[in-house]
Amino acid sequence: MSLFKLFLIFTKIGAILLGGGYVILPILTDELCEKRKLLTNEELVDYFALSQSLPGIIAANISMFAGYKLNGIKGAITAVIGVTFIPFWTIVFLASFLDRLVNNNFVQSAMWGVGIAVIALITLTIREIWQKSDKDKFFYFIFILSLVSMLYFELSPIQTIIIFSVIGILIKRSVKKA
Amino acid sequence: MIYLQLLSEFFKIGLFSFGGGYATIPFLFHISEVYGWYTLKELTQITALASITPGPVGINAATYAGLKTAGLAGSILATTAEIIPSLILVLITAKLLKNFSGNFYVKSLISTLKPISCALLTSVAIGLIKPEIGNIKSLILLSVLLLLSIKSKKDPLFYILISAIAGAFII
């Protein structure tokens, strides 16, 4: 894929990245997996977890992983420039209206709606990943334990990823030896 | 000098903020106290702005702080400085994954990451839904959106736009 086209795709993704970074996963799934068939759903899900385990902005990290897969180092750099392009210029142009914009009722109500859309989009993504994964005992075991650790024991995502990656690898190893 | 400070402060944020957008807030708070590049009130507004403009809060804050302290050059510098550490780490990780894709440990890691990702997303969704549970309007809009998705799967932008319109005009 040409770098220019890659840039355009990620610029579009950055432009609709409303309501926080998590919405990038539904948007990327739609844009790269379904419309263009450039990546598989599974690859994106891996990138999502890896992006959470690395420092920095998740939306930028996952774009760089996807960009790297599509066009190597140049692809990663192009993707991150693309995804930050519109957000960057929006702030530059809106900085002087910050006060008025944030306190505008109309804008606030519209953004409440966007917040709900983000919940719906994330729910749909979970459903999709769920349908497309091979759910063996191992999958359920890791899924339930890591969910419980976050919801009840309030482990952070990064703690959860590290602990359960180690547990997962140890299980796989003992299964292989047996 | 100001350029060097912007560079090092936002590089630090990029390197040490684990867990995405909102993890950067304590760092941004610290910057406002130490350097006064923006006030606390402005920081609150940047955080609010992050939800009404495209893009992650961490990027928005870097752009804004850079702009206020050193103009357009400052905003480019701060934003770039914040991304560079994760760019390096992502490239290393992606390369390792590619070179060792046949390795037993890498394969095990990948198959473990899937259920963990599902759990992460589920906990994000639960965290987002929780504050809305008492709000009838939110629940109605959410149900309408989910019902729409059963009929046919649409572009994410579609959901974002109709919800923004519903929020602004109807509810």
Entry keywords:
heterodimer, A: 178 residues, mainly alpha, 81% helix, B: mainly alpha, flat
Rg of chain A, Cα atoms, Å: 19 Å
The 3D shape of chain B can be described as flat
Number of domains as seen in the coordinates of chain B: 2
Return the structural class of chain A.
Answer: mainly alpha
Regarding quaternary structure, how should these chains be classified? heterodimer
User: How many helices of chain B in DSSP terms?
Assistant: 7
Q: Count the beta strands of chain B.
A: 0
Residue windows where pLDDT falls under 50 for at least 5 positions of chain B: none
Kindly estimate the percentage of residues of chain B that lie in beta strands according to DSSP.
under 5%
**What average pLDDT do the residues of chain A reach?**
87
* DSSP strand count of chain A: 0
Strand content of chain A: under 5%
Share of residues in helices of chain B: over 70%
Number of helices of chain A: 8
Sum up the overall morphology of chain A in one term: globular
The average pLDDT score of chain B comes to 84
Q: How far apart are the first and last residues' alpha carbons of chain B, in Å?
A: 50 Å
Major sheet attributes of chain A:
none
Explained architecture:
The complex is a heterodimer of chains A (178) and B (171). Chain A is mainly α. Chain A has 8 helices and no strands. The radius of gyration of chain A is 19 Å and the shape is globular. The model of chain A has no long low-confidence stretch (mean pLDDT 87). With 171 residues, chain B is mainly α. Chain B contains 7 helices and no strands. The chains are: A mainly alpha (178), B mainly alpha (171). At the A-B interface, helix 2, helix 3, helix 4, helix 5 and helix 6 of A face helix 1, helix 3, helix 4, helix 5 and helix 6 of B.
